[in-house]
Amino acid sequence: MPALSTTVSLLIAVALPQLAGILGAWATASSVESWYPTLTKPWFTPPNWLFAPAWITLYLLMGIASWMIWRQGFDQRAVRWALGVYGLQLLLNAGWSPAFFGAQSLGLGLAVIIPLWLAIVATIVLFWRIVPLAGALLIPYLGWVTYATALNLRLWQLN
């Protein structure tokens, strides 16, 4: 089977996390207008308009980082392991919105976002060992999820 072209593999790698974002947006849609506005929010809650551009950018960076690792050769054990952990964090990422918004459960959101945070750290470490820039591209994602974890925790405490 011939190898995928650089462009096709990049498009696939970028599309996968964007798909996770679409699933999250679908789970979020109804609760963002009904349930979420009724919550008592901490002072550091960002404006709603910030979420979409932030996540689109972070998913783009995730896709590029995963592509950089994929290009190193799936025949390498370190690459397979790194992409497997990346896949796990992507599943956890896709699961947070249905847990938090879909189930309207701040506690369930915490139960998903904490392992997500750990999986992101593991992904950064594994990516960094293979292509340091790929690991570095995930640092803004870790920062945003750290912030989201603090927000989720404070929302849970306040409500």
Q: Helices, strands, pairings?
A:
Elements: H1 6-33, H2 51-70, H3 77-102, H4 106-130, H5 132-137, H6 139-158
Provide structural commentary.
The chain is mostly helical and 159 residues long. The protein has a single domain, classed as Up-down Bundle (Ferritin). Helix content is 79%, strand content 0%. The chain is built from six helices and no strands. The chain has helices at residues 6-33, 51-70, 77-102, 106-130, 132-137, 139-158. It is elongated, with a radius of gyration of 16 Å. The N and C termini lie far apart (54 Å).
Content of β-strand: under 5%
CATH fold-level topology: Ferritin
Structure annotation, total helices? 6
CATH architecture term:
Up-down Bundle
Structural class: mainly alpha
* Percentage of residues assigned to helices: over 70%
| Main pleated-sheet profile | none
User: In one word, what is the shape?
Assistant: elongated
Question: Which H/E pattern describes the elements?
Answer: HHHHHH
Distance from N terminus to C terminus (CA atoms, Å) equals: 54 Å
Q: Output the CATH homologous superfamily.
A: TspO/MBR protein
How many β-strand runs?
0
**Structural domains: how many:** 1
Q: Tell me the radius of gyration.
A: 16 Å
Q: Which runs of at least 5 residues are low in confidence (pLDDT < 50)? A: none
State the name of the first-level CATH class: Mainly Alpha
What does the average pLDDT come to? Answer: 94
